[in-house]
Each structure stands twice: as C-alpha cells, then as structure tokens.
Target: ROK family protein
Amino acid sequence: MKAKKNSPQATSVAEREARGKRSVREFAWVEAASSELTRDINRDLILEQIRSRQPISRVALARHTGLQPSTVSSIVEQLKQERWIKEGPAVQTPRGRRPTMVTLNDDLLMLVADVRPSQAVLAVVDLNGRFLSRRVVPLPTAPEGAVMAIASGFQALRDGHPGKVFEGVGISVPGRVNPETNALMLIPNLNWMNYDVSGKLSEILGLTVEIENDANACLLSELWFGNLDGLRNVVLLAISEGLGAALLVEGRLVSGSNGLAGEFGHVTVDADGPKCGCGKQGCWEVFASSQAAQRYYAEQRGHTGKISMRELVSLALDDDEAAKAALRQQCEHIGSGLRVVNASLAPEAILFAGEITTFWSLASPIIEAECKRGLLAETGPRLISTGDGELALLRGAAAVVLHRHSGYYRASSVRNRKASS
Model:
C-alpha cells in the first residue's frame, strides 16, 4: 500500500535525521538516556533515598523509588563496596523475613576547610554532616605558606581519627573556581591566583582535593542535607569580606562558563565608588560586604583603626550608635542590590550565609524593606538565613566532596575531568 503523504512511512530518513538534529539544537539540555546513564541516575536516586530516610531496608527503597528489587539490591551492593553505606542488624518484624537496614557509612570521613584572607577554619566531617573535630589556622599572605599551613592542620586533624577512612578534601574559598580544572579563576581577596592549590594539597595529603566557591558550596550543602525541598529557583548570597552568589535555576545549580556565573558582587552600582578588589570601581561588594560595614564605622568615628565584624556587631548590640549606623548602611546596600537579583532571576527564596548571619535579627528587617522597594510583583522572595555562618561554609565544603565523589550522574563533568587529567 502506498503511504499517505503525512504518514510516518512517507518521511524520509534524511528528513528524520534533520529533525532530530534541530531538536538537539533547540533543546540543549536534552541528553541521550544510555543504559550507563540510567544506571548512574538510579544509583544517585538510591543513595539520596538512603541519606534522607536512613535507616531503610531494600524493600522500602524499592517502594520509594519504584525500581525493581533486583536493581535496588545490585546498587546497594555497589554502594557498600564503595564504602558509602553500611548495613546494620536485621530488624524484627511481625512476619516474613527480617529486613536488614542500611545507612550512610559514618566511618567514612572528609577533611574540610573554609578559607578566609587571614585564616582557615578546618574540620573533620562525616557523611551525615556531623562535625567531629575542628581547628583554626592563621594564614600567611603567600599561597605557598598558606597551603603548607592548611596541610599541616589537616594532618593533625587526620591523626586524631585513627582507623577511619578519609574520602577526600573539600575547600570553600571566597572566589570563583573552574569546575572543569579545579583552578582558581577569580579570587580578589586572596593572593592565590596562578597557584595550583588543589594539586599541592593533594600531593601532600594523598587525597583528592575539591575546591569550590563559598556560595556554591553553601548552596550544595542546602541541597544535599535537604533544606531546599520543594524549591527550584533560589539564590544564595555569601556575605563576609566579599559578596558571592550561587544560583539554583529550575532545580539545577548553574555555574556558567569557567564557573563565573552569579558574580553579582562585582556588578558596578556606582562608577564613582571605592575601588574593589577585582580592580573595578564601585562594585556592589564594596558597599554591601563586611569590609564595607567596617569602613562605614571608621568613617563615622573618624579613625582608620581596624575593627572586626564580631566587635562591630557586639558594639551594635550594646546600642553603640555608630556601629548600628554602619550595619544599617551595609544592609540597605544589600537590600537595594537585591533588585538586580530579583529582576534578573525572580527567585522563590534568597538564602544568606557568612558573617551577615551573625546579626540576622538586626539585618533582616532592613534588607527586606529595601528589597521590597524594587519588586516588580506584589510578592517577593523569602529571605532566609542559613544559620551559623562558619558551620554553613564548612558543611558546604563537605557537600562539594559528597556531590562530586558520590554522584555518578550529578558529577559526570567532574569525573570526566579527572579521567582526562
């Protein structure tokens, strides 16, 4: 029978191939679902269910994921061999076989660091995000000395946990990192450019070292530990000596070309403003960071003496008018800068991490009032503090290791990078 003009049989092979190529060009996010990719996605799904529902049995995993019991058992055995999970004792049930429960392996640990210009806070963290030990290491300006100080601190922490296995090292930095090479791309407040930080630390410690921007690390932490359930469009601002941002767009973490997406802190808001660490004039960061608040306080007091943010917040809580005015000025600039964030991304929520969280009860009403002035709609994003700034950044460094090492599908680009290096 002759095929009708509009029937599938009438479509030539060349036309079908051309249509397929067009669809790939039009939908750049489409990825062919190979059997290997399907296995990787299922593996990540199983690990995520174990993390969020532990302790959990294989039967329950099959029920919650919709996967075949044989598939679940195969993946569970793989995760056990890789040491991400462990089995506990069988649980007594009214009838049938006694199921064996699985949990994340709390004997598998990570070394993490939150690096600042003058010091690094180091810690040992387990897979559940629990902190087992911690120490603060002063840092010299030169990257060689700073890396050696961090390595020495890590060695001391690792020696304090004999018999444990360390999966890797996660480092949170106030700058941008190329996700393909682990190289620092932009780090205005640290003199670490053109120095192979991850390579040197890996050589000394014998562990894989993952470096990530502090804001991205914090956002990964919120994702990994389940604090963003139900939210798909989120911006996280890390505000300490600088101002960095991380973007979750339609449920995907966006890093952009060379990992530079989200650099709202280096958008010029006043061309006549103070010079920024990036070399430009009047960036949002120079008006909204901790250094800005310290500068405002010094200007009001008429002196150039250095004051820490902890001291400045303490003075404000004691009703020091100059301190309160300095923090208010910083928060007003944070809130006004959010107008660009809202207009360009329309997030459901904006999270705050870093030193800004240490005085959130003072900051949030001011930031929220300024943010609302520039809204394009009646309702704006929820403004949420991540809590303890220091712990959030350290937990973020741990989440980077978990994300890149445990997630086959989620971290495929990183695995490809390592394979080719």
About this structure: The domain at 42-87+98-103 is CATH 1.10.10.10 (Arc Repressor Mutant, subunit A). The longest strand covers residues 165-173. The chain has three domains: 42-87+98-103, 108-213, 228-385.
